[in-house]
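Dear colleague,

Thank you for sharing your sequence with our group. We've completed the structure prediction you requested, and as agreed, I am returning the results in plain text so they can be pasted directly into your records. Please verify that the sequence below matches your submission; if there's any discrepancy, let me know and we will rerun it promptly.
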Amino acid sequence: MDFESDTVSFAQKKIEMGFITKLKSAFGSEKSTENVSNGDTIDAIIKDIEHDAFATSDTNVLYAGLNELGGYYFVQTVIVGSFKVKSKKGAQLRINGKKLNLELTSDSEEFESDHTDVKGRHITKIDFQIEEKDAAKIDRPNVDDLMLSCKGKTFSFQVIKS
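Please find the predicted structure tokens below.
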């Protein structure tokens, strides 16, 4: 999923976001006995999932997209890889780029990672609130990195440039 220019309507983006609800099922067909530290790679994670990755870290892939529900706007993220968390205090997402610095707060304070059928991989879905005017500013070529802060730790993701 790509953050696109503001010419694409939120309704179109909402339709494209259907992949988030399908991501868990993508792991049922592929099995591995390796985890990220044992040789599983970012490339293997990206290959296993049909959707376009937005950013990567050393051991995780971040999928992202925009959604609107009842007049509220969200950046929906799904992190796949070694990232494993159970939070009761939420998370923050900082989006950095050319003329762009946004700090978003998770929609829900409670979330946790789910195991997948692939050993060592987890899937974590976190939605972040965003103002409509800020959502329109996000465009993949202008975003350099994302910083996810959760439970006192910060994880850096570099945007995949197409």
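Summary note from our side: The chain has four helices and eleven strands.

Kind regards,
the structure core
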